[in-house]
């Protein structure tokens, strides 16, 4: 398990995972690594649009959840030849909210004073 927090709290990520390995013979090894990830980002790029004849880059906050697993199969055919398979299927979902655009991109630190929140009319 690990936890990461981005610069000034603009992003966070929790990861939880475990590794399971099985070696039934000297020449075959199977590994399975299931995991779960929960993350948040304050400034996720969404799209570019035109507003009042100006290009605006639209950002939003996003909450993401991901379930994944890594599968690895190592098959040693000889001391000089190994065949390996690795795959990582996953399912993810995300929820965008608080759509915004940056009003002053020249600022080094993006703050709420340099963003405009988009609201539905």
Describe the structure.
Strands 1, 2, 3, 4, 5, 6, 7 and 8 form an eight-stranded antiparallel sheet that branches. The chain has no helices and eight strands. The chain has 121 residues and is an all-beta fold. Helices cover 0% and strands 74% of the residues. The mean pLDDT is 86.
Topology:
Layout: E1 2-5, E2 11-17, E3 20-25, E4 28-51, E5 54-78, E6 81-87, E7 90-102, E8 115-117
Antiparallel strand pairs: 1-2, 2-4, 3-4, 4-5, 5-6, 5-7, 7-8
pLDDT averaged over residues: 86
Binned, the helix content reads under 10%
Largest sheet: 8 strands, antiparallel
**Which parts are unreliable, with pLDDT below 50 for 5 consecutive residues or more?**
none
Q: What's the total helix number?
A: 0
Structural class: mainly beta
Strand content: over 45%
Order of helices and strands: EEEEEEEE
Global shape: elongated
Count of extended strands: 8
Determine the N-to-C terminus distance: 43 Å
Rg is: 22 Å
